[in-house]
Amino acid sequence: MDIDEFRERGKEMIDYICEFVSTIKDRRVTPDLEPGFLKPMLPSEAPMDPESWDDIMKDVENKIVPGLVFWQHPHFHAYFPTGNSFPSLLGDILCDAMGCIGFSWASSPSCTELETIVLDWYGKFDFHFLITTATIIIQGSASDCIFVAMVAARDHTIARLKEKPEYAHLDETALLGKLVAYCSTQSHSCVEKGARVSFFTLRLLEPDEHSSLRGATLEQAIEADVAAGLIPFFVSTTLGTTGSCAFDKLTEIGPVCRKYEGIWFHVDGAYGGSSFICPEFRYLMAGLEYADSFNTNPNKFMLTNFDCSCLWVRDRTKVIKALVVDPIYLEHPNEESAIDYRNWSLPLSRRFRSLKLWFVMRNYGISGLQAYIRNHVKLAKHFEALVKKDSRFEVVNDVLLGLVCFRVKGTDDFNKEFLLNINDSGKLHMVPAVINGQYIIRFCVTTPHATAEDVGKIDNLFITLTNFTHISLYCPRHQAKDFKKL
Ligand code: PLP
């Protein structure tokens, strides 16, 4: 493809995207397909000769699009939102066209400097008390952010212990065997994965009846481990848990972390963190001032396309010490005075992600982002009110942001059937969680362009949903497909 064809095809692609976005509501939310559906439709080998762009796009439309789950569909209510907006899309297109890999200041100074400036804007607005001392970086995902915090904490703790006479006889492996980290059973699974690959013990603690981890529970676990000769070193908490958007009690947990020497206190606000852009939700972050590190994903709840996950670290030297490796080909003359983000993350190569975040912040303005978040919360509150009014259902979480957790009053098996039938219908999509030992259904507001009219749409959606209580009673899942015809 030469530049003239690119100019033409690029315009066509924008048209295709606009059509895709504006007709998405007419599609099934989830595909009705079996695993392996694509293989018979595509050749088993890559083409030896070039193919025409028209043929490629025909296959996109006829073979690929039918196998998508439409995450931007107005009736997609699963997981958390995945950020999506036109300024962000344009940012990604430009990033890909510029094609810079800004791992160090020298490798592309604007990539580094814009990232610092945009994150400074973001931090100043939301997390001003963290920003004075902290360092911020965009990572690929919340899992990466938490893993980097864990690795920095582990490295720092081992270095600290090696200085102590009582541990001088132990090598790094023996010290690692003594390290213990803590999180709640409601923490995201990436905390468990990070601990597993980092080779330290992780204790999963029971939260309270609001799914919130409490200081006393943490302190009890720490005391028991200290008494057993182990070394507590890392606590990961959540502001906006995946299951029910619960908020751990940082005001209790922070002081516990401070009481015991050397405990790194991490806060995961992957979804909930973006809400603090609205002053009225900042009460939810009380206690964040104790944190050693904090992450939030603009690519979830701030209209920025994946990937864009921000990590604040109070003391950057701890991250750099853990991650720096200096081969000669990466040296440059400005190392002393400039930031090299490669030393703050696992991958070397980095996309110019700050470009899309900058576009989003400028094009929406803080007020536009606040309006977006407020609309989501308003729609969730409206859905909550509908569920509460219907005696067949119960709401099972504190609806604080855009997530409503509910269930049909009945057995877990009935609720499973109910959800499977809903998802099989292709009309809307939700996923389950287990809260306080019960199977529950998560309804998350995800639409990028929520408006006042969406309140009426939620009313209709709730009626659709209530019909499935009937279907689930009489239609076990293996017959569910028959009901789609009704
Ligand atoms: N933390 C929380 C609270 C989440 O909800 C999620 C994902 O939804 C994650 C971490 C993991 O996010 P990522 O996919 O960016 O690694």
What's this model, at a glance?
By secondary structure, the chain is an alpha/beta fold. Helices cover 44% and strands 12% of the residues.
How would you describe this structure to a colleague?
- It is built from 16 helices and 11 strands.
- The model is unreliable at 480-486 (pLDDT under 50).
- Among the domains are: 3-84, Up-down Bundle (dopa decarboxylase, N-terminal domain), CATH 1.20.1340; 100-352, Type I PLP-dependent aspartate aminotransferase-like (Major domain) (Aspartate Aminotransferase, domain 2), CATH 3.40.640.
- It has 486 residues and is an alpha/beta fold.
- α6 (142-162) crosses α12 and α9 (215-227) packs parallel to α10.
- The chain binds pyridoxal-5'-phosphate.
Helix content: 40-55%
Q: How many helices? A: 16
Number of strands: 11
Mean of all residue-level pLDDT scores: 91
H-E string: HHHHHEHHEHEHEHEEHEHHEEHEEHH
Low-confidence stretches: 480-486
Bound molecules: pyridoxal-5'-phosphate
CATH superfamily of the domain at 100-352: Type I PLP-dependent aspartate aminotransferase-like (Major domain)
Alpha-carbon distance between the two ends:
48 Å
Descriptive tags:
486 residues; dopa decarboxylase, N-terminal domain; seven-stranded mixed β-sheet; four-stranded antiparallel β-sheet; disordered C terminus; binds pyridoxal-5'-phosphate
